[in-house]
Amino acid sequence: MAENISLKIDDFDVTVPVGSTILQAAKLAGVDIPHLCYDPAWNLPPTSSCRLCLVELEAAGSLVPSCSHPAAAGMVVRTDTEEIRQIRRMLIDLLLSDHPQDCLTCERAGGCDLQKYAYQLGVKQSSYPPEQSLAEPERDGPAIVYDRSKCILCGRCVQICQDFHASGAIDYFGRGFDTRISLPPNQSRRHSTCTECGNCIDVCPTGAMSAAAAEGAGREWELESVPTICPYCGCGCTILMNIRDNRVIQITAHPDLGINKGLLCVKGRFGIDFISHAERLTTPLIRKDGKLTPATWDQALDLVASRLGEIKNKFGPNAIAGLASAKCTNEENYIFQKFIRAVVGTNNVDHCARLCHSSTVAGLARAFGSGAMTNSIEDFEVTDCIFVIGSNTTECHPIIGSAIKRAAVQRNAPLIVADPRAIELTEFATIHIQHTGGTDVALINAMMRVILDEQLEDKQFIAERTEGFDQFRKAVEAYTPEMAEKITGVPAADIIRAARIYAQASRETGLVEVGCAGMIGVGAGPLQGLVG
Ligand code: SF4
Ligand code: SF4
Ligand code: SF4
């Protein structure tokens, strides 16, 4: 159980877990301390660069940044003395000296932290001579606008890109007044590691980083924020649709919502504009004389019902088949199969998942009893080894791709990538196995044979939770690494190394992609993922 400490912040006594910062303790006590470079919602590592969160420690009489200074037992903290207010006014004053005073037309007016603190501290204009950056906003891609003149160099965008999205696309460049946030010099967004996920927009406290498509479409207070699930991939990220006049203006996310904890990829953030797209079909179309012509819903439904009825009467129900889509909701798919089975009267109903999922679903169901993911997305944050096969994760399930990159970069978790292609994850891999396409089974069987030969398997797990293990042992017997090398083209030494890395980790996770609508991570213990 975490040990607690008690301290006094202004007039409030507060008890917090050991290791809390003063700012975290103040939040618990209901005391609001201004801050710009630190974002508690995201829990970005504090850099203490803006100095706005300075507070006074009564005993020492010193000022410390509350975002990074640890709270201590018996501490007495003053957060709002006249001296502190003066310092904060001066800091805002300095920031405003290099900031356009165009709140009337700024996209972030009403949601800008700089504006909020200038208002709270009564700083109406800067007392320093203006030294405005004259640079025009940069639009080096269709989605994101960077306005240097509004950038306060707080570094939140750099942190989210490096520490959370694990792209490391942007950084500080230049010196002094010319310092700016940018991609490396001479690199276009398209040819950089930037994935245009737009997570840098969500953390920016001013109007410096913004979504191009939302320009002039509405301010924060004019938008209704509706949470829903991203329709694209099996990660199932929670997105916030910011809506005005029944039109989606911008997609954002929040760290408190969903498995994505505030992160989104380019698809979820910028790929939802089809909802209001001018070319979107708004009426059914009926083909007449070879041309699709607009029709009413009644006309379309009557036509479909009568044609299905005619075919059924003439040829029987089995002359009809229905194919549903992973883009539909569970409820829509349920109703569809019910309609085909109960109304049309045939079992000829299928789903696009047959194409991409069925082999893995069948294998998982046989091995684990259910064709579903056996461990959670959160496991990627704690696993000691990740084995990726059959998945270009950063493209197909980008939020999980980021989690894998974070594990490899920040925790040095060994990453085994088995893919004939050099995908993005191979840049982070401890070992990249480029096996010949279609030889996955031989590769995995050989890895399992190595694990058994070297007695690296989890014997207790096998004894308690598996059946038919002797048959399984016989099945992989023939797959020596040398034999698998001939089939897969992978040197036997690499197969042995990968097997050892995988089996010697105490908590490993395997990842098998199962197409556009689903993702299955397998394996929470030695061999569990391999016996499938
Ligand atoms: S869009 Fe995403 S990848 Fe690109 S700079 Fe912003 S956070 Fe980094
Ligand atoms: S672009 Fe925004 S988040 Fe990035 S440093 Fe500038 S003000 Fe901070
Ligand atoms: S990873 Fe991207 S596409 Fe997949 S659910 Fe999340 S935002 Fe949508």
Helix and strand arrangement:
Elements: E1 4-9, E2 12-17, H1 22-29, E3 54-57, E4 62-65, E5 76-78, H2 82-97, H3 113-121, E6 144-146, H4 156-164, E7 171-173, E8 180-182, H5 199-203, E9 209-211, E10 224-229, E11 238-244, E12 247-252, H6 266-270, E13 285-288, E14 291-294, H7 297-315, E15 322-324, H8 330-344, E16 349-351, H9 353-368, E17 385-389, H10 393-396, H11 398-410, E18 415-418, E19 431-433, H12 440-453, H13 459-465, H14 469-477, H15 481-488, H16 492-504, E20 508-513, E21 519-522
Parallel strand pairs: 1-5, 15-16, 17-18, 17-20, 18-19
Antiparallel strand pairs: 1-2, 3-4, 3-5, 6-9, 7-8, 10-11, 11-12, 13-14, 20-21
Helix pairs in contact: 2-3, 12-14, 12-15, 12-16, 15-16
The chain binds iron/sulfur cluster (SF4) (3 copies).
